[in-house]
Amino acid sequence: MVQILHYTDSLNTIYRDGKMKIWVYADHAPVHSHVRTPDGDSAVDLATMAELAGCANRKLLAKAIAWALANKPPDSGRMGQTQWGMTMREKLPRITKATSLGNMRLNVCFEDGWSADVDLAEFVAGFKSLKPLRDADLFPRVAVEEWGSGLTWDDEGPLSIAATTVYRLAAAQADDGARSFDAWMMQHGFSASKAADTLGMSRRNIINYRTATRPIPKVVRLACKAVDMGAHD
């Protein structure tokens, strides 16, 4: 059975068909889709329909790209202004458990064993589509999406937040430098090699920062912010 839902703001469109799941985010640039299959995940540039990263099942990925070509958002012309380089990021964060702590706060557990508290109040306030989550009776009814791809309050409908977004927010609020750096790379679709080229340093340093083997210097954090602001071509 095929199900197509149209979202706004943080989540533009989602498509589910059997073992394949596609979702499109606009809460960070560029607008792109994630294709999740039982064999792995892939990110696809909606401007070029090229696979940016990952290891999704090839037949299901081809089917996903065909669907995306037939269902481009109305503003897809603007997406071509930002080009993503090819990356080799093989895995996106998956959520295994989420528990409400009250006051729009959650304790979230991830597949790699990391858990953290995250306050979603500010994020939710930024999206009109998520306004219902301010309801004190609704928010505690959080559930984990299929395959751990995000959190949902309405069976993967408009009241859903991607695992990548939850991971990024949790890392920042926990002041976890290594995971924040990992989330930054994820946000931009950077492999270790691409991040090294972008920041002008060795791939070994990038890996050290992601694994907390070495502390992240202030100059590197500033460089990451510059990339966020579009200073890097």
Can you describe this structure in just a few lines?
This protein is α+β, with helices and mostly antiparallel strands and 233 residues long.
Task: Provide structural commentary.
The longest helix has 13 residues, at 58-70. Mean pLDDT is 76; it is low at 1-14 and 77-90. Helix content is 29%, strand content 26%. The chain has 233 residues and is of the alpha+beta class. It contains 7 helices and 12 strands. Helix 3 (163-173) runs antiparallel to helix 4 and helix 5 crosses helix 6 (203-210). The strands form 3 sheets. It has a 6-stranded antiparallel sheet with strand order 1-2-3-4-5-6, with helices on one face. A 3-stranded antiparallel sheet has the order 7-8-9. Strands 10-11-12 form a 3-stranded antiparallel sheet.
What is the topology?
Layout: E1 2-6, E2 11-17, E3 20-25, E4 32-37, E5 40-45, E6 51-54, H1 58-70, E7 95-102, E8 105-110, E9 115-119, H2 121-125, E10 143-144, E11 150-152, E12 160-162, H3 163-173, H4 177-188, H5 192-199, H6 203-210, H7 218-228
Antiparallel strand pairs: 1-2, 2-3, 3-4, 4-5, 5-6, 7-8, 8-9, 10-11, 11-12
Helix pairs in contact: 3-4, 5-6
Key structural traits:
233 residues, alpha+beta, disordered N terminus, three-stranded antiparallel sheet, 26% strand, 7 helices, 29% helix, six-stranded antiparallel sheet
